[in-house]
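This part of the workshop introduces the protein records we will be handling. As an example, a complete record with its sequence and its structure tokens follows.
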Amino acid sequence: MESQLRNDLHGSSPGLYVFCLYYDMCLAMSLLQVLLVFAKEDSQSNGFCWACEKANFRCSMARTPESALECFLEKHHDLVIIDHRHSRHFDAEALCRSIRAVNSSENTVIVAVVKRYVISFFLFRYVENANMMACYNELLQLEHGEVRAQFKLRAGNAIFTALEQSQEAIEITSEDQVIQYVNPAYESIMGYQQGELIGKEIIEVPKSEKNKPDLLETINSCIRKGKEWQGIYYAKKKNGDSIQQNVKITPVIGQGGKIRHYVSINRPLNDNNKVRCVSSCVFFSPDIQSSKHKDRRKGSLDVRSTTSRGSDGSSQRRHSSMARIHSMTIEAPITKVINIINAAQESSPMPVAEALDRVLEILRTTELYSPQLGTKDEDPHTNDLVGGLMTDGLRRLSGNEYIFSTKQPHHLPSHLTTPLSLNDIPPRIAQTMENEDSWDFDIFNLEAATLKRPLTYLGLKIFSRFGVCEFLNCPEATLRSWLQVIEANYHSSNSYHNSTHAADVLHATAYFLCKERVKQSLDPIDEVAALIAATVHDVDHPGRTNSFLCNAGSELAILYNDTAVLESHHAALAFQITTRDDKCNIFKNIERNEYRTLRQAIIDMVLATEMTKHFEHVNKFVNSINKPLAALEENGGNNDEESVKSILTSPENRILVKRMLIKCADISNPCRPQELCIEWAGRISEEYFAQTDEEKRQGLPVVMPVFDRNTCSIPKSQISFIDYFITDMFDAWDAFADLPNLMQHLDNNFKYWKGLDERKLHSLRPPPE
């Protein structure tokens, strides 16, 4: 109690995470209980009352310290807000001490409302602001931050009770791999007593010789990224016997986004549970304590499933692909089911194996791949990115709805009404585009040379290189007009989502289409669809996220039912623009069925850029393409052209390849050369800053609070984005398309951001020496 009181009064950071588990608690929180202590009713107390009602919190009001303490003893509130602005009414610090003297207050969060010029010794302070939305946002931040953390601590007793009663052997170790806890079931199965293990390092416990020599290396390559690994492991009991177990390795991410504990749950493998792999265990080599990304490519296993490419380096990359493919950890529950079925097939009679093949075929072609997001949301940067990019945000409208009008598409400016010819491109611009087939092509040089019209010029050259006019049977003049009107409908005022981004995605798409494995998979109509989809994928983007539009009650959000709002708009508007005028209708001369096929492919690819289904698309690609190709190579069938072709060219897999291609092209910035990567990072950050500014002005929920231009760490945001979205996706795409130069850029850029972050720098570049 005393230490907690000191934390409240002196501002020292409380030891919130002494509890050995950092789980994203699944225990349901009851309605939040809030106690407001204000001597008099005023606009500030009314603001918090309104905010509690809006957030559906249970609110009590007390006017005196005595009534406040009485009320607290009765209801044991989660959050207490004390008016500390007027010391003449009552002593706020004395009231805090009185509340902290109550045993049940251990996990209560106490906040003081203070004036700007008053120095307060409370840990949590709210500077006087009677704006109702400011009070509401403060309550939401407290609920999702400190209150939830205290709830986890309060739930600790329940968690440990469950551990003690569990029939599975459970072991918890510290970040330094020192054993902190084993439950009675562990003692019974392994033959050790608690006192023999607590305080020992995990490496001191004897290991079985029956495990494969490279198993620990495989495990480490996986868990260094803070992810789970599942498989079979032999443990050695105290009496020396080896026991075969189902194993799932779970590093637990805690404060600062670092691994803080490892949780182990062991179940012996026997005839009754060979298929029910529900246990988990943790075994780590000493180097796990190193940074998650120290030598991250060097130490990780590759997902590639390619045939020989003729060099020792390629051979080594292929050699590691098998273990990497089978230890891919972007596992949704359905992925685990598929792995279990695969294991069961090995010992099943032919009719059963064939039936299971049919089951797998069904599972791989339905919407079952969304993963269970792990503990990474402990990191506020990752949490905000996930919340901002993968959800529709808080749908609580303020009354100040931000309306995007359903406006007519832009027409071409008068000086662009004469279509530009490929032969008319000025020499300076043509020279800028000479190396457009290289991954290191500088799109910003083209942006400057074309006066912010790079999409038209680059589109002319790339579409010509791929023979798009010939395929569509349309004159070059029609294509030129189409490119110009599409570019006119991108917003040059956006710092990121403008026509330069569209040109960049088009460039990446064209680069990927030239990779051998991609060419083997796609038909000409797929290539044309991919190039068109890349060109239009963000047309008329307002520079705000889907979450913002939903929160603001925009007309687009209403039109598309808060679902894939922007992506649906981009696809629909692209076809409206294209078909309304014969002068730019590039589809005018193709046969109806071919148009339907092309249209469907374009729409599907544009919708695939929506981030809520990011993990679903990546999971499907890994399980339906990467792993089958890897299995062929593993079984010596990499030269079986028919088997490879059947995987690459099936209609379902061609769709997956196209989705993965445009997704990788859309968010490939971290894989670009460093200077380009830094420029893109600055532009997207500025766009998010502008959104946060507008949310505050409009009184809307702030979707990504870390993107405050005054406090944001751009390096941290880039590290989180790479960790959460980029690494697994490009590992899988690299395994398919063979992209060593991109992966090298990714490594270099990650190390660059990590270096800035370690120096506590928040900017894009280090200060000059």
